[in-house]
Amino acid sequence: MHSQTxxxxxxxxxxxxxxxxxxxxxxxxxxxxxxxxxxxxxxxGYLLTRTIPPTxxxxxxxxxxxxxxxxxxxxxxxxxxxxxxxxxxxxVQQPRILEATAKAVRYGGAWQxxxxxxxxxxxxxxxxxxxxxxxxxxxxxxxxxxANQLISQGPVAEQQAQAxxxxxxxQQQLVALRQQILTGQKTVQDLxxxxxxxxxxxxxxxxxxxxxxxxDKVDAWQRNYxxxxxxxTRGGGLYVTILAPASVPTTPISPNITQLVLLGILxxxxxxxxxxxxxxxxxxxIKDAEDAQRILGRPTLxxxxxxxxxxxxxxxxVTFKQPRSPISEAYRVLRTNLRYSGIENPGGxxxxxxxxxxxxxSTTAANLAVSLAQVGKKIVLVxxxxxxxxxxxxxxxxxxxxxxxxxxxxxxSLNDVMQKTGVPTLHxxxxxxxxxxxxxxxxxxxxxxxLASLRQNxxxxxxxxxxxxxxxxxxILGSRCSGAVLVVDSGKTRTEIARRALAxxxxxxxxxxxxxxxKMGAKQAAGYYYYYYGQNKA
Length: 538
Description:
This protein has 538 residues and is α/β, with parallel strands linked by helices. It is built from 21 helices and twelve strands. The chain has three domains: 2-52 and 255-281, no CATH class; 54-252, no CATH class; 283-537, P-loop containing nucleotide triphosphate hydrolases (Rossmann fold, 3-Layer(aba) Sandwich). Helices cover 56% and strands 14% of the residues. Strand 11, helix 20 and strand 12 (512-520) form a beta-alpha-beta unit.
């Protein structure tokens, strides 16, 4: 049970690393496009900021509430103040307020436009009037004027006017009472002084009576003064006033250059990822080892870099002409991987084919044969492409007598058609003259006998066949071989074509052991080796 759990975990890790590796491969492949589109998004965001006029915000803060005698107001009293602030916030959007404001500041547009320029935020006893405008001075003027209109036209204005009149009346009464108190106190002082020096009993009695009467009046006036003073300062009235008038804003709130540039970069990056996805989706070719495994269900045995600078057929034989080149090394890796395919058994026969022409199957077969022979194996390369032969051109051999002549004459033997090459253990059987009926020849008992005879004296027979889809030759030959490899032109062989070729071979009971990715770019090939060895290591 434990080993099964570990195995499942390893598979999961392998799948995750495989998916991540694919994304990294796509990132490296399309990095230039991602950088380009992302940069264009950032530049576009910056250019957009240059077309947007700057916008400023001015804020006037008003103090709105109810005067409280209690230093610790109750929740209901605080809620009443909050409701009053919210009510004044709604009053800001009323037509009479906006129309009066537009007229006062000489607003150039329709007063209805102010509805979209003004916003409010309220909290207990505080109301903030925010005005957004392209002109900072106009924004300040509108914010302050709206506050003035709220004070003059708001529901508290009449109550405040009445309270002001009452306070003025009380103030007048207080002034009169104060004067009376001062005069009375002076009279009390004079009468007190006269009583101290008066000797006439009758006159003394009269002065005392006048003194007590005046003192009673002063006391009454003082009591009235205290009552009026308390009434003048008594709380409970509503108030609406400007706490902090708006100042001229100096920094625009928009456009936010940093924000728009970052937004442009994010949009550009998203667009680049979408574009890469669309390009990969439209491009349904087999490009890498993961594609081959996912689409064909076959492992990739090797990834061969595109051979450049071919001026004549012999230049394609890189394993012989340039044994130290990276391409030759790729064929050596392919040679190593074939050991685990089951083909390279004593007397094995391997078919090398492709879905269509021009995918490099003949070049692959020739170089693979050289690579195997270079380690001392006895290899015979058979050019069974009797329609468009090319093996003799790469090795510089004569093609007057070849495979087809074994069928045309009983006087021609295998030794007669087997030619030596520059590699001691490699022999080549060229195609010979082009026959009128290649499919019938390859499907004959004689062809089976030829392959059986070759298997007896060699380590491996490599058969270069025509492409799978145009003709039936490859399917016929594959059924007589130990196994077959399918050569795929990386980035050009379409998915459906490769699937049809594989299905055709499978219907003929051909054992397709793997895929060879041909004509890959250097970076793609490096990605394959990372993928291949990373999978094995996992």
